[in-house]
Each structure stands twice: as C-alpha cells, then as structure tokens.
Amino acid sequence: MTQIGFFIDVTKCIGCKTCVVACKDKNNLEVGRNFRRVYSFEQGVFPNPSLTHVSLSCNHCDVPTCIPNCPTTAIFKRAEDGAVLIDHDKCVGCRYCEWNCPYDAPQFNEQLGKMTKCDTCFDLRDAGEEPVCVTSCPLRAIEFGPIKELRKKYGNVSEIKGMPSASITKPNLVIKTK
Amino acid sequence: MDEWALFIFTLAVQASIGSTFVLYLFNLRSSELKEDEAYHLFRMPLIVISVLSLLGLAASFSHLGAPMNAFNTIRNIGSSWMSREIVLTGAFIGLTCLTAGLTIVQKKVTPWLMLVTAIVGLIDVYAMGALYATTLVSGWNSINTYTSFFGTTLILGAVLAVSLVAPKFSKETSGINAKGIIRGAFAVAVLGFTIQVVGSAMFFTAVHEVTMIDAVPASSILANYKGMIASGWIASIIGMFLFGYLAVSKSKKTFVSLTFTALAIFVVAQGLSRYVFYVMPG
C-alpha cells in the first residue's frame, strides 16, 4: 500500500479559503459542512506578532481514532492508498467520530443522517487529476501524493503551535513552517 | 446544548439502573415480607422502571441520524466503547422488562433476576462513562465522567426507588421495615453524592487539556455556566438534607409528598449537572 497524504505550505498560505470553497463546490456541501477548513493562529505581541493559516481536511491518519471508536465499523482505511473512508451502508449517524477526531474531519450530513468527509477526490484521481483543493489553491500551497515522497521533499513536521498533537493519530500530513 | 436526546437517555437509564439496584437492596432488607406483600410492594416500581428505561431507549434512537442502521452499532464491540455500551444498555433494558413481566405473570418477585439486572446495569454505567471519557473532548476525558455517572445512578436510583415504594408504606404492608429501607436508600444516595464530590474535586486536573482543533479548554466553556453549576450543587445539598430528614423523621403525614419533593429536587440537580456535562464539546 502506498499511503497518501497532504502537504501544506503555511509560508505561502494567505488564508483565502479558496480550497474550502472549491471543496464545497466539488462535493456540493451546504452551509456549515466543510471537508476542508482553514484555521488561523495568532501569536506574539507587537512588535513581533504573527498570523499563521493552515488548511486542514481529513489527514487519513496512520492511527485514525475514528476507526476503533466507530460502533458500526463504517469507517475504514482503504487498502490501496490508506485513505480513510465511510461506508454509508453501515453508518448510523451517531456522530461519535466527531468526538474522536482531533481535526474535525467527519462532518454530519443532516439530509443523509450520516457522516461524510474528505475522500481525497478519488473520482478526480481515478481520472488522473489532483484533488480539487490542490488545483484550486492560487498560492500552490497544497500538494497531495504518497506521504513518503512528501516527507522526503518537505520533512516530517506535521503540527504547528495551536494544532492538536500529531502523536494522537499520526496524521499523514506534512507542514512547511519556515 | 445540542444533545437533548443523550441528556434524556443517560438520565433515564442511569435512574433505572440505580433504582433496580436499590430495589434489590430493599428486597434483601424485607425478608420478613410475605410473598404477596413483596409482590404488591415491588410490582409498580418494576413496571415504572421498565417504562423509564424504554423512554431512555426511545430518546437514544432519536439521537441517530439513520436509525434504520441501528443494529450496526453492535458490530465493533471489540474496540468501540459505544458498541459495548449499546449491548449492555440493551441487555439491561431487556432484563428490566423481563423482571417486571415475570413479576406480573408469576405474581411474585424474582430477587436473583433483579440482582443480575442491577449488575448488568452497573457495568453499563461504567461503559457509558468510558464512552465519553475515551473521547478527545476537553473535560470529558476525566475521571469526573465516571464519578458523575455513578453518582447520578446511585442518587437518582435511591430517591426514585423510595418514591416508588413510599405510597405503599402508608397502607397495609405490615411486615415492612420502612425506616430501615429509607435509611439504606439514604446511605446509597450519600455514597453517590460523595463520589460526585470527589470526582468534581479531581475534575480540575483534566479540564485544561485540549486535543481537538479549534476547541477551547472545558474551563473556558464552563466559565459561562457558573450559575448553573452552583445551582446544581446547592439543589443536591438541599436534596440530601431532605432525604436525611426523611430517613430520621417519625412523621408519616407528609412522608409521601416530601419523598416526591426530594425526587423533584434531585432530578433538577442531576439535570443541571448533566446539562453542563453536554455543553463541554462547545
């Protein structure tokens, strides 16, 4: 299995949320349901303040705490690429995964009564394209691919100050901070 | 607070579990009762407990987005505390209804079945605690979750059981040790209250942890609920004094109405505490 993951360059990200909107458009998400979200962290005081934006979706973690806690076994890690997905034939819509994910990845679909989340745009990927968050980013701050290659290129940082500890779920995420 | 279904479910099922346990203790202390006296004393309480637990079950179903898939929730018993809790709650409710049903059909109580039901229920309370305590929600990942749930179980269980049998005391149950029963129930409530006090004192060791993105520590959220937290504890203390008075008072005149007053006070107290519990995810 080649585990996939995301690379986020926070040195480029300006917090424009184009990735959020493109993802909403692609997945037809109503107000309040966002598979990808941009979090902004303010730090420091004048004269050295800083503002950091980080775009996050499901990180298709190595230790996804949503999977063992899901009572229905609806959440699973896809064998071929390690993407964490939800089987809607099993999901009961109890929303327990919301309380077990550090990244707010599972999002409740009121109409379906079931949980939904980032599936890495596997329909686009099957057609040889990139996930829509990657192609829509005007700053080219998001990359997607085998996590080994992303880590080789950009290092092993997978959290910044303000984010939950990466030790909880071992996210397949690489972040460039400087 | 968005979790009204879980609010009703946890309070109703914990009260049912606690009162089954306390009714079993009543039965132990009433060995001098004749078979038909025991039947008349316990029949209605067992029916009410069954109905209450079924109400809790109905509330839990309303929490589900896709209730048609409800049977899937027991598939992950190997690793999900939610699956375990659902199996145990189902077993408890089934046993409760069986106990009440057998009591009606056989016209006598089955103490060993009450004991088994109570034990399954108490294990279920642990599973309910683990379900929340193992999440990443700040404030829930604390021993206070277990102590709060067990405290509610014992307090509401004791006062509900007394309220359900109290109307019979003023009638013709000759062989009953009414004061002994009330004192036993009061001791159970004191134990529950003590557990909640200890858990509340230890709560502050976990309340500052944040393990979810965009979350704030439970301490920041709870700062907005100071009045509600204080009111809950004050109501609990008033309830304990009233329950204590009932345990020592010799007056029979106002006994039943004061018992129901104590039940109402404890429902408000534990309701406020549970409301504050469910605001913690933010």
Automatic annotation (TrEMBL), chain A:
Domain of life per record: Bacteria
All copies of domain 4Fe-4S ferredoxin-type, residue ranges: 4-34, 82-111
Cofactor (UniProt): [4Fe-4S] cluster
Any GO molecular function: metal ion binding
Pfam families linked: Fer4_11
PANTHER family reported for this sequence: ANAEROBIC DIMETHYL SULFOXIDE REDUCTASE CHAIN B-RELATED (PTHR43177:SF5), PROTEIN NRFC (PTHR43177)
Name listed for the protein in its UniProt record: DMSO reductase iron-sulfur subunit
Organism expressing this protein natively: Sporosarcina pasteurii
Upper classification of the organism: Bacteria, Bacillati, Bacillota, Bacilli, Bacillales
From TrEMBL, chain B:
Key words of the record: Membrane, Transmembrane, Transmembrane helix
InterPro entries in the cross-refs: DmsC (IPR007059)
Identification of the protein by name: DMSO reductase anchor subunit
Gene, per the UniProt record: dmsC
GO cellular component: dimethyl sulfoxide reductase complex; plasma membrane
Record field: transmembrane: 6-26, 46-66, 86-105, 112-134, 146-166, 186-207, 227-248, 255-277
Any GO MF annotation of the entry: dimethyl sulfoxide reductase activity
Organism: Sporosarcina pasteurii
Biological process, per Gene Ontology: anaerobic electron transport chain
